[in-house]
Amino acid sequence: MAERVIRAGVELTPAEVEELELERPDYEVQLESLNQWQLAWRRFKRHRLAVVGSAIFLSIVAVGVLGPVLLHYDFRVIPHANQIVYAGRAPSWVSGNWDPPLLMGETARLQRDVFTLVVNGARLSLVIGVGATIISVILGALVGGFAGYFGGAVDWVLMRIVDSLLSLPLLFIILVAAQFLGSGSWFSLMLIFGAFGWLGLSRLVRSLFLSLREEDFVDAARAVGVSDIRIILRHILPNTLSPIIVAATLSVAGVIIGEAFVSFVGFGVELNQPTWGNILTNSLDFIQQGNWWWAFFPGFAIVLTVLSINFMGDGLRDALDPRARI
Amino acid sequence: MTTRLQPDAAPASLPAPGRDPEVILDVRDLRTYFHVMDGTVRAVDGVDFRIKRGGRLALVGESGCGKSVTALSIMRLIDQPPGEIASGEIWFDGRDLLSLSESEMRQVRGGEIAMIFQEPMTSLNPVLSVGDQIMEAVKLHQEVSAKEARDIATQALRDVGVPAPERRITQYPHELSGGMRQRVMIAMALSCRPKLLIADEPTTALDVTIQRQILELIKVIQERTGTALLLITHDLGVVAETVDEVVVMYAGKIMETGTVDQVLLEPRHPYSRGLLQSIPSRGRRGQPLHVIKGVVPNPFRMPAGCKFEPRCPYRWDQCKAEEPRLYDTGGGRSSRCWLYDPRFRDRMRRYELEGKDYVPPAAATELTA
Fold first, then answer.
1. CA gap B181, B159 in Å, rounded
2. For the CA atoms of chain B, what is the radius of gyration?
3. What pLDDT shows up at residue A81?
4. B305: which DSSP letter?
5. pLDDT greater than 90 at residue A133
6. By the 8 A CB rule, do B297 and B314 touch?
7. In contact, A281 and A266? CB cutoff 8 Å
8. Sign (positive or negative) of CA dihedral A75, A78, A84, A86
9. What's the rounded mean pLDDT across residues A272-277?
10. Number of C-beta neighbours around residue A234 at 10 A
11. Adjacent-strand bridge partners of B199
12. Interface test with A, best of B102, B121, B125, B186 (most A CBs within 10 A)
């Protein structure tokens, strides 16, 4: 049993091997070795509502991506021009009139198919919601991260900027900005929501950094010679991921609602590019005439999306925390 | 100001700082202050010590005596503000670390001086895998590819006795026990072959059997690789097993220096004696355990004279009036006590006649009252 044991480039004597108990079997390592994503998936699966929520959200995304391609007619085309019904038609399953079959009814005036509108609206509403959230998460994480990590003057200046921006009546700023920055363009609307949406998030990230920068592992990283920027981005930021994900999902939902509102009051996306918000806008005049389906289905799409995102965010928060146990 | 900033007891025979190639770390008159709302805390107040290449030195003292701040000052990891390295020189391998730029200092940290922290449970980042953290240290200081970094990290884990390192490397800190995590910290510290290893209470958070393994590991690797060791601890048992030289600190100052045998077997300073008598031992079974009476002085109201005077059984008027300097007591030892001043040789002789453990009765009763 004269096996040579070499550690740190030097051969150890049997006495030293004994002393260090180097060859002791390690029982922990035998137990299980699922990787981080497998563990996260396992935790996520336990969260029933989150699984349902993400299934719904993913189908809405699929509808947004594929729906406009698969639908057999364009939303601008009047589908049943041969039957002129100016007042709009209720869904077939409500009215009992299956000629033509209408899943979500038909709008008054232009006789557009509500189902086609809602499906087409999904794409832009989701793109604006997710795009604006990505912008605001990046801005918020950077501003909050720098403020919280460096503290002192950096923190003071950045946070006073956030304070002053938060003191502005944001809704009016967004309305005015939407008007000036290419009114009616979904892209500028996304930029505007992104540019103003990071304020709350930066405060959240800052508070997380304030406590995390005192952690021992930050000192340990500095003692290894890691630079400040790298500590912020690679060592501390991943630790703030779960609250950021929760805040981001809420933000997606918030932006979708905000976009709906801005479009609803007439400052949003042009009417020839449907979003759930501007479909609602158009329906406004006709609700009193009994066209409930025109407002109900896009509204329901918003509610369903926001709810499913929130449930999904809840599940992600639990699943992505590597400290959480099964 | 000027008088206070005089170096305490730098004997004239010392070579110019940084010139002696045998000395890896030469700390001279280090003073680290913290400016807080209530005033200034002199956490480290004039500390001098040297470590030879491959040498082992321990900084010993109770909580709050400035030993960790000394280590963090060497690494330049003191937050400024509120901290301030008010004066001093830290010569490491021919350079004064205090004069380096921040980017030069980053190369020293981890590359040439590595540090192991007290709490293995919190010193590893919970969201990065063990391998990521070791590989990051490797990639920062060595020009290697990702695959080579992985090999180095695996070998580093194997070196510190982590079984199945190929699998361990993908695991996250929460999957490891405390002892394993401390091994990972040591692997990370040693992965770049540093010239100096600073271990800040490396075994305090571990249970006794793991403590011994970790100490043995540090010692074996330190001896074999020729890395110098600066051990920071309050545990005199750890000191006896691990190092060659000891520096005893109290209230930000050095109280006594010497080799481990000298200080542990024949302490000269009353504080070191108190520390040693406070260790439970088989020989004094049944007797009440000795304690050093009183508490560490409030950092905002330090005694004007000797910092240990309020708790010292040997004190007299002189101790209250003026602070002693670090007296050279021969044989490479020194002690910051008035008893070693030539003017008080008579008093010293009287204590010696009464025996080493003699405590003047008057002082003892006064302190218990």
1. 14
2. 22
3. 64
4. S
5. yes
6. no
7. yes
8. positive
9. 81
10. 17
11. B116, B231
12. B125
Per DSSP, what are the bridge partners of residue B45?
Answer: B31
* Mean pLDDT for the stretch of residues A88-113: 70
Contact A322, A239 (CB under 8 A): no
Considering only residues 187 to 206 of chain B, which have any Cβ-Cβ distance to chain A shorter than 8 Å? 188, 190
Helix (H, G, I), strand (E, B) or coil at A26: coil
Return phi, psi of residue A250, to 5°: -60, -35
Q: How far apart are CA A5 and CA A1, in angstroms?
A: 11
- Give B-chain residues touching A40 at CB under 8 angstroms: none
Structural tokens at position B90: 């830290």
Average pLDDT over residues A239-244: 83
Would the CB atoms of A7 and B158 count as touching at under 8 Å? Answer: yes
Contacts 24+ apart (CB under 8 A), B12-20: B17/B89, B17/B91, B17/B96, B18/B91, B18/B94, B18/B95, B18/B96
Collapsed DSSP state (helix, strand, coil) of residue B269: coil
B213 contacts B162 by C-beta, under 8 angstroms: no
User: DSSP 3-state helix, strand, coil percentages of chain B (rounded to 5)?
Assistant: 35, 20, 40
- Give chain B positions within 8 Å (CB) of A215: 122
Rounded to whole angstroms, the Cα distance separating A220 from B185 reads 9
CB A157 within 8 A of CB A149: no
Q: Is B259 on the interface with A (CB under 8 A)?
A: no
Pairing of strands B83-92, B23-36: antiparallel
Q: Distance between CA B342 and CA B336 in Å, rounded?
A: 13
C-alpha to C-alpha distance for B328 and B43, rounded to whole angstroms = 24
Residues A108, A109, A112, A114, Cα dihedral to 10°: -30
Measured in Å, how far apart are chain B's first and last C-alpha atoms? 38
Residue with tokens 């002789």: B349
A25 part of contact set with chain B, CB < 8 Å: yes
User: Which positions 37-96 of B are in contact with A (Cβ < 8 Å)?
Assistant: 75, 77, 81
Helix (H), strand (E), coil (C) string for A117-179: HHHHHHHHHHHHHHHHHHHHHHHHHHHHHHHHHHCHHHHHHHHHHHHHHHHCCHHHHHHHHHH
Measuring CA to CA, which residue among B85, B64, B81, B91 is closest to residue B73? B85
Cα–Cα distance measured from residue A202 to residue A158, given in angstroms and rounded to the nearest whole number: 9
Which value, to the nearest 10 degrees, does the dihedral of the CA atoms of residues B161, B165, B169, B171 take?
-90
Facing A239 at nearest CB: one of B106, B110, B126: B126
Name residue B250's beta-bridge partners. B253
List of chain B residues whose C-beta atoms are within 8 Å of the C-beta of residue A24: 163
Neighbours of B17 (CB within 10 A): 17
Residue B246: in which H helix or E strand, if any?
strand B245-250
Q: Is the pLDDT of residue A156 over 50?
A: yes
Q: What is the DSSP letter of A13?
A: P
What ipTM, to 2 d.p.? Answer: 0.78
With pLDDT > 90 as the criterion, what percentage of chain B qualifies? 1
Sheet with B39-52, edge to edge strand ranges = B39-52, B23-36, B83-92, B95-96
Can you point out the beta strands (E) in B37-192? 39-52, 56-60, 83-92, 95-96, 113-116
CB-CB neighbours of A271 under 10 Å:
14
Lowest-confidence region among A44-58, A221-235, B117-131, B274-288? B274-288
Q: Which residues pair with B26 in a beta bridge?
A: B50, B91
